[in-house]
Each structure stands twice: as structure tokens, then as C-alpha cells.
Amino acid sequence: MDTTPYYNKIYAWDYTLAHHVPSIHADPDENLSAYFGRNSTFFKFHDEAIWEKIDKQAKTVNTPDRQALVQEIQKDIIVSTR
User: Fold this and answer.
1) Of 58, 36, 57, 59, whose CA–CA distance to 48 is shortest?
2) Cα separations in angstroms, 8 against 5, 58, 71, 80
3) b/e per residue, 53-71, with b = 16+ CB within 10 A?
4) N or C, which end of the chain has less CB nearby within 10 Å?
5) What is the pTM of this model?
């Protein structure tokens, strides 16, 4: 879908699930916080346990530890949204 029609649908909440290719570096917070965090744009998502993990990974500076947390969060999100 082209960008303009995509954003017209998104801003009208006319979707079930949407995703776009991130426009900046591959920071996990771009997707995790924006779509599944406490102030997410995915309005039907509410999971405080996952929010805690998202906050924790954002503060983790050890790359392997952060990668493990991000992978765990991604699995939790899949289970939570089924």
C-alpha cells in the first residue's frame, strides 16, 4: 500500500493490525514502545507485564542481554495478542 492511503487508514483507526518499515535505525524501542508500550498507538494493547519488560530492555546496555529481552518480549506479544 502506498504511504498516503496507508496513513489515511491508520489515522482513521480503520485497521486490525498495521506495520510499516521503520524509517530510522533498528532500535527496538521504535517498534516496541511505539506500538506496544505504555503510550502505544496500538490502542487495543494493554499488558503491564510486557510494559515492564519493554521499560527494562530500554535501560539495558549489554547488547546480548537486551537482544534476549527483546526476543522474549516479541514472543510475549504474540501470545498476548492471539
Assistant:
1) 36
2) 5, 30, 31, 27
3) bbeebbebeeeeebeebbe
4) C
5) 0.66
